[in-house]
Amino acid sequence: MTKSKQSLVTDDRQLSLLELLMKDREERVASIPGRLNISARLAATAKRVIRSAPKSRETIADEMTDLLGETITVSMINNWIADSHPHRIPGEFIPAFCAATGSNEMIEIQAEAAGVFTLPGPDVLRAEIQKLDEQVRKTSAEKRRRILFLQELEGRK
């Protein structure tokens, strides 16, 4: 006697292993005091990005001025990244800073702290295509299950 095929039934409400691990990590991180104080990370990243940028601070300041419609000076940039200076880059200036330096790291730090992830445009499209492919596979599998069930029902008549 052969063993009957057991269908694998998955519950859409059941968390995957990855989701369980991520939930556990989030719960542990949520209990850390000051977990969203990203000031030091932002300052260190700004300093590193400026030093590694292929543009001068003058060029970065000029580009930020054009993008913001506000005057940004080299002195302001120097103050934002100086360890001894209490002022940091204002949040509303960060997109212009990223555009001028060619680095999205500052926005990525903020997004990560908020629990979201950023992707450049082409990667978003790739992710959407992958999601559509997964939906197609899921729909095809559901269709196959229904066809098999229909054949089973018709075979019993």
What would a concise description of this structure say?
With 157 residues, this protein is an all-alpha fold. The chain has helices at residues 17-30, 39-52, 57-68, 74-81, 94-101, 105-114, 121-156.
Protein model, in words:
By secondary structure, the chain is an all-alpha fold. It folds into two domains: 36-117; 119-157. The protein is 65% helix and 0% strand. It has seven helices and no strands. Helix 2 packs antiparallel against helix 6 and helix 3 (57-68) packs across helix 5. It is elongated and about 85 Å long.
Structural descriptors:
157 residues; mainly alpha; 2 domains; 0% strand; elongated
- Number of distinct beta strands: 0
> Which consecutive residue ranges, at least 5 long each, have pLDDT under 50?
none
Query: What fraction of residues sit in β-strands?
Result: under 5%
The major pleated sheet works out as: none
| Average pLDDT rating | 85
Gross morphology is: elongated
Number of domains: 2
**Helix and strand string, N-terminal first?**
HHHHHHH
Helix % is 55-70%
Radius of gyration: 26 Å
Q: How many angstroms does the end-to-end distance come to?
A: 23 Å
Produce the secondary structure layout.
Elements: H1 17-30, H2 39-52, H3 57-68, H4 74-81, H5 94-101, H6 105-114, H7 121-156
Helix pairs in contact: 2-6, 3-5
